[in-house]
Amino acid sequence: MRADGRAPDQLRDVRITRGWLDHAEGSVLVEFGRTRVLCAASFTEGVPRWKKGSGEGWVTAEYAMLPRATNDRSSRESVKGKIGGRTHEISRLIGRSLRAVVDVSALGENTIVLDCDVLQADGGTRTAAITGAYVALADAVAWGARHGHVTGGKQVLTDSVAAVSVGIIDGTPMLDLPYVEDVRAETDMNVVTTGAGAFVEVQGTAEHAPFDRAELDALLDLAVGGTAELTRLQLEALARDLDR
Amino acid sequence: MRADGRAPDQLRDVRITRGWLDHAEGSVLVEFGRTRVLCAASFTEGVPRWKKGSGEGWVTAEYAMLPRATNDRSSRESVKGKIGGRTHEISRLIGRSLRAVVDVSALGENTIVLDCDVLQADGGTRTAAITGAYVALADAVAWGARHGHVTGGKQVLTDSVAAVSVGIIDGTPMLDLPYVEDVRAETDMNVVTTGAGAFVEVQGTAEHAPFDRAELDALLDLAVGGTAELTRLQLEALARDLDR
Amino acid sequence: MRADGRAPDQLRDVRITRGWLDHAEGSVLVEFGRTRVLCAASFTEGVPRWKKGSGEGWVTAEYAMLPRATNDRSSRESVKGKIGGRTHEISRLIGRSLRAVVDVSALGENTIVLDCDVLQADGGTRTAAITGAYVALADAVAWGARHGHVTGGKQVLTDSVAAVSVGIIDGTPMLDLPYVEDVRAETDMNVVTTGAGAFVEVQGTAEHAPFDRAELDALLDLAVGGTAELTRLQLEALARDLDR
Amino acid sequence: MRADGRAPDQLRDVRITRGWLDHAEGSVLVEFGRTRVLCAASFTEGVPRWKKGSGEGWVTAEYAMLPRATNDRSSRESVKGKIGGRTHEISRLIGRSLRAVVDVSALGENTIVLDCDVLQADGGTRTAAITGAYVALADAVAWGARHGHVTGGKQVLTDSVAAVSVGIIDGTPMLDLPYVEDVRAETDMNVVTTGAGAFVEVQGTAEHAPFDRAELDALLDLAVGGTAELTRLQLEALARDLDR
Amino acid sequence: MRADGRAPDQLRDVRITRGWLDHAEGSVLVEFGRTRVLCAASFTEGVPRWKKGSGEGWVTAEYAMLPRATNDRSSRESVKGKIGGRTHEISRLIGRSLRAVVDVSALGENTIVLDCDVLQADGGTRTAAITGAYVALADAVAWGARHGHVTGGKQVLTDSVAAVSVGIIDGTPMLDLPYVEDVRAETDMNVVTTGAGAFVEVQGTAEHAPFDRAELDALLDLAVGGTAELTRLQLEALARDLDR
Amino acid sequence: MRADGRAPDQLRDVRITRGWLDHAEGSVLVEFGRTRVLCAASFTEGVPRWKKGSGEGWVTAEYAMLPRATNDRSSRESVKGKIGGRTHEISRLIGRSLRAVVDVSALGENTIVLDCDVLQADGGTRTAAITGAYVALADAVAWGARHGHVTGGKQVLTDSVAAVSVGIIDGTPMLDLPYVEDVRAETDMNVVTTGAGAFVEVQGTAEHAPFDRAELDALLDLAVGGTAELTRLQLEALARDLDR
């Protein structure tokens, strides 16, 4: 039994609130338990210079954490004047994960930037961010189509994408770790899959002890179950009306 | 009649939600219409080096805006590697305004940092930030007292503080400007007052035309009415139970 | 009686020396007592990118302080690699104040940058900077007209602009505060007016105690008297021959 | 058959030259084909502030690339004034990988910094860096023991660590990708294992197409074979005399 | 005959005004013709960390140029967020030159920082800065002695130091080049000597054509004559009363 | 007799290895004893903006040191976020020295960047860098001619350039100082000459005691002998086949 009463293969309460912002072309407040990430998708015509004339669009992401998202206040990266390695790493992960399901030629020369700002952190912020960002992205793509910016007639999104963290705690593989579990995990893995269940990213790290093939397999099984459930929640959220 | 149907001397709908974050010692989501600012107060023992041994505490603030708080996405200051002048100016204003009602010797050698992050901007973000930050500050001071960090027996907060924007539009002084009014204002003023109605900050700027003494007086009257109402809402919010 | 023997409503000795630099299109060494600011106006053809094709010009300002302008040496912002909040705030104030009397369409697509470098600081550096910068600006505009860069036939400068600090010390409102008075002021206000006496900026701050309407009114009266006298000194300076 | 004539499960020529630098406590020039990374281990007494008094040591890494390591010259990060996301990400990966085989309490309050500078890049720079850095680390630990800085009597290194890249190209899983293969890979994975064959890091990325469990398994098999061979080469290198 | 009517071995009008600032322990406005540099010497007790406990003092310098010191406005290094190579190079040269005549053990654990800010540039700013900075340094050392901070009883300054530029223009070696000559010089040399006539720095650069030994010798002769005259002017300035 | 057994006028063992990198248009690993510098010349079509349309090319250099090139590890400038004064100064020196023998109009609108990265430092890194960079530059110019980018028919290189350090140690002038001699030198000079023996740069610094004309003359004699020998070694290296 886990501290919060969940079964090892159970997700925390996941909530996906679309249209949380008035200005953004797509926006989602995603909650995995107490982890709360605001994902805003900004659709703009045109692409970065190195993409100009390619006929292809671009999707990228920026992840950040508010200073008091965490238990102790951390300094602002804007005040420090530089972005930390962790921030860089997660921003790149989110961008890659989303691009795995985007047909950039169907998008045309348009750019969608996903801003994922962690309002409150309780473990799994990067996986919540990917899961929420996909929904915001879908809304922004729909906005682009509705407003005549996406005109190719092809599907921009080839599939959906969702992510979850898994880890081994006291020898037991567990799904969707909150902070108190995360710090105790011997091995920690973030898994990103498509709606169809294929892998987009697998990032496993031995935090306290190297892991063997059997443990890796158990973690992957657990993760695939989790992202399947998240995929269902994403579709459910996208099926709801967004009256704005 | 204003675009949103308000009378010239009427505030937008103001909502003050305490305890919006789980980790912070004080936290408030403050809304002035569509403007939405998250204010987190972090209480820590100890003071900056230049205050050590003084017996006095320190209260400071940092203001920032999420990239997609605005209609068009703006670049992150952390990515640009430097903080803009506007951000600096507003952070300093919030800090000064709050310190005006803090007895630093009663606070003892403790520091309270107020993080005011604009989640959505529709004019008046700095005045909403000050108004919300005061409530978060009050909760953090209470937390400090409850946890035995504030022991002087004196009141740390000598009064409350609230702020509102006023401006002259087509010759008419108006209270609490949303973005569409703000850009059209000939003169724009931000006024910070104490609960007792005294001035803490008065910042008037001729945006399109210099203003005379009569206009200045009319704006001040309007502002004082507005902050009195905000003071009432702050007290109301602080009177509610915060079950955490 | 004040420490330097002045009456409460008396300015310090103000000196405005035009043409202090050989290269700049306009330049002024302005002195308010021991406060000494070098204001250089640089006239260049063309405007920033966001103004291109607008037919309008641009006027902006940068304020800075030499490391040993003050009693204790301060670090160079270039060495620290970032500009402080105070510097940002004052640069923006000077730029806004000057633009209030500039008809940018009469200026045409030209840019005038005002560099205000404090060589020695003894209180009131921002107000001295604005007062001196106006004179340097006037010389740069005249230079632009003489050299055929300003051709619209309209007046570029719609009025003059001057600034002064006022404050309440031991209950008495006083004009043009030197450093020793500034640090003791309960309330500190910087007022910028046009030559015609209208307000451009009013920035009042409760340093040690909130202020009431009567105090505010007394400070405004004092300031308006001070800027009127500064306006006279600016005109006198501009009336002198500048033999270069 | 691959462009360079290798079998799919064959490493490039790997050379590990110890003692390439005269000053460093451990140093290795490691070559995976044309990829050439200089790994320098610097042993210093003392630990970062947040580790002081813990009785534990610290091992960290910094990765960088010379401007002309690549086919086209890239700008220096020192000139740009900031470190890119890729650099950050790889530095963190190297540090984590090495720490997985370090008993920090056996190291005592000493710090070892691994500088991995890519002199020439032809794919697999991060895996070459980890493989070479382990050898440099082993030499630095031995230096620390020889000079009486490591005195606990316990083994500092609990195992060895090596890394290799694998990828799927035209449907075939391949080991140790040079640049020309890397850019064509549908899926790209970096795997770090201990000498005992357990996983330390598994980072798989769908570059052009999501991958399924069977592909993941094939890649892991291939990688484990590769790191086993690299482990053998590391031991061989460490068995040679280092006459300095 | 030179454009300004000087003989090839003649200095420009040199003016050394001591006590130009009220706050600094030593200050000089030095003018070499139209080149105008403000040198401020700040005396503080204590030394940088790496000198603590050495019993020795430290003397260092920072050189900078106001944006409109030159014919065209240059961007502020504080705004750019970094210091250029030329600024760095000259700051280091000034510091080294002054330290050549300072007995750091006689100074005791005190620091003197020389800020050399170019108010107007017309060639030879670094040599004017060194020449003026020496005089400001002498005043700061005297201040330190008068205020009991320098107590060793030994002479802190072992000699004086002065600097001048020389160059070959159309085949003729010339002393103290203004900007119009500087840009045309085939070879450009900055020479720093002690009052006793020994060399502290010799920096010769072939701007347009390599130079031979005879040319080098002629330039050195010229420079030594120039610095001897500057030494005389420094002594004269220091002999004057400084009534503050 | 010197510590390493050399005569006062003898160079260390100098090795110039061309083609050390596979990607660069010219590359040299140059060794002066234990000092080891990797010089990479990158030839690109086009010039910086301020040179566009001039018909002239541009040659520039960047110098840097690996963190563990030195006896104690130094921090990376990329991590610190700024380039130090020494790095700036040496980069500028290398660039100027090379440009002294380049006919930029013969080069056409092409740019050659010389990256000089110190892999190991034992004194004289800047002079080794210049000496090696010239050879890399010559190879890059030849590459440009072979590939049809340099078409003017004129010689791009008007001469060769080499550099050496000299210093006075215990009263004796010595050639090519390793670190142990460098720190003890009373006077330190870096001399850059053309193959024809004319001076390009002469930079003499009194490290511990000012120097007189006789000492300066002795140092120059010694340096000229050293660079003549280096010129011979450069020609020898360039005469060898570079089979790539």
TrEMBL record, chains A, B, C, D, E, F:
Top-rank lineage group of the source organism: Bacteria
Domain spans labelled Exoribonuclease phosphorolytic: 10-140, 160-224
EC class of the enzyme, as a word: transferase
Pfam family, one: RNase_PH
Keywords: Nucleotidyltransferase, RNA-binding, rRNA processing, Transferase, tRNA processing, tRNA-binding
Enzyme Commission code: 2.7.7.56
Residues at which phosphate binds: R86, G124, T125, R126
Reactions accelerated catalytically: tRNA(n+1) + phosphate = tRNA(n) + a ribonucleoside 5'-diphosphate
Function recorded in the entry: Phosphorolytic 3'-5' exoribonuclease that plays an important role in tRNA 3'-end maturation. Removes nucleotide residues following the 3'-CCA terminus of tRNAs; can also add nucleotides to the ends of RNA molecules by using nucleoside diphosphates as substrates, but this may not be physiologically important. Probably plays a role in initiation of 16S rRNA degradation (leading to ribosome degradation) during starvation.
Family in the record: Belongs to the RNase PH family.
NCBIfam families xrefs: RNasePH
Subunit structure and binding partners: Homohexameric ring arranged as a trimer of dimers.
Protein name: Ribonuclease PH
Gene coding for it: rph
